[in-house]
Amino acid sequence: MRLNNNRFLFFSLISVFFLFSCDYLGLEKKESDKKSIVIASTGTEKLYKEELLKVLPRNISSQDSLVFVKSFINKWATNILLLEKAKNNISEKDNNSIQELVNNYKESLLINNYKEKLVKQKLDTIVNDTEIEAYYNNYNSNFKLNEDLVKIKYLHVSNDFNELDEAKTLFTSDNISDLDLLTQQQLSFIRYHFNDSIWLSVENILLKLPFKKEELLKKTKIIQKQDSLGVYLASVSDVLERNSVAPLEYVKPTVKQMILHQRKLELIREIEKIIVQDAVKNEIFKTY
Known about the structure:
The protein is α+β, with helices and mostly antiparallel strands.
C-alpha cells in the first residue's frame, strides 16, 4: 500500500511539474504572469517565474519545455551555490585583485561608451571617390588578393533547352544588343550572369558551375560542359590570381571602412587632447 502511495505521489509531482513548464508558464506572457512568483530558491536567493519566461523559447514542445525548465533551474542553482562558495573561500588578496579588474573593466566600458557617442555625433562619414582612390594608390601594396578573381559571364540551361545553338551565338557575341536578346530569354535559364565587367571570386563560381578551377583561370571565349543537370557555358575575359594587387573596384568598400577607421582614431585623439586642455585651463587637471 505504501509503495502504491509513493508511486502515486511521484507521478503526481511529475505531472504538476510538466503542467507548470508547459501550461502554467505558457509561451505568451499574460497579465497575471507579471506577479513575482517564486519557482526555486537557494538560501536567500530566489528565482522568479518572470525570469524563466524571459528565456523560455517560443513554440517549444511540451517535452522540450520540461527538459529546458529543469536544466535552467539546475544551472541557476549551481551558479548561486558556486558563487556563495567562492565568496566564502576567497582570500582578501584575491578579492582585491578581482575587484580591481572589475573596476578597471567598468571604467573602460564607461570611457569607450562616451567616446563612441562622441564619435557618432562628430564623425564625418562621407568618403568621396577621390579620397578612396588616393588612399588605394598610396597603400595598394596592402591590398593583396587572398583568392583568385575573374571577370566572367556564364549560362546554365536544362538539357532539353531547344535554343542552345542560338544561345551560344548570342552568348559569344561582342555586340551588346545580342546579349540583350539573350537576356530576354532569362525565364528559360536555370542560372546566368552576363555582366563580365565586375570581378567575381573563382571559389564562389565553382559552387555554381561544374568547371575545373584551372579552366576558369585563363581567358577563354567560351567553354562548355554538360552533365545530368544541364548545359553550362562560360566566357572568361580577365583573370587576377591570388597575391596580385586587388583591383580598386573590388576592395572599394574595404578602403572606405579603412578611411573611416582612420578618421575615427584621429577624432578620438583630438577629443582626448581637448579634454585634457580644458581640464588644465580650468585648473581641474594639475601636475606637481
